[in-house]
Amino acid sequence: MKQQVEIEFKNLLTAEEFKHIKQVFHVQDSQFIYQENHYFDTPGFSLKEKEAALRIRVKNDTYTLTLKQLMTQGVLETHERLTKEETLSLLNGTSVITGEMASVLQTMGIPLEQLQHFGTLTTRRAELPYEGGILVLDHSQYLQTDDYEIEYETNDAVRGKQVFEQLLSSLNIPIRPTMNKIKRLYIKKYGVEKRT
Asked: Which domains does the chain have, with CATH numbers?
């Protein structure tokens, strides 16, 4: 298990803006990597109530269980590698999370036996270095929805915000309040943001 603090800025894009950014940065379709994000929570959305999220990401034949917890500055990510078999049994509900991740979740008061897979979001992602950070282009699909997003990952929240907003300005892209992917999936699935 490993942990890291993620500081990122994100903005939703129109399909036309996404295409324009690809042209500006000379991003080829072949640079996009496919990944699946499978999200978990309890029926009462215990994780969401704690402003946390749990997912399994499948990418390049690797399987990573990630817990995201909101911090004052950024998001604390806790990662644990899984086997394909462990992933499939969690997705179909025939097993529960074990090991160090289970201990972290139990400390949060999350009932492991109630965790269930509630949705999947697939993303084609391209990453490129930009101004000391990483620029990310995402085309995501979920529940008959396509969305496009640009993210900027950085180690410096103050400078990162300036760099990101200057980039959007230079591309004539308005700053849009952008929820994270799991919240967009919640709203699409339930019509409103799910609350208990």
From this structure: 2-190 (2.40.320.10)
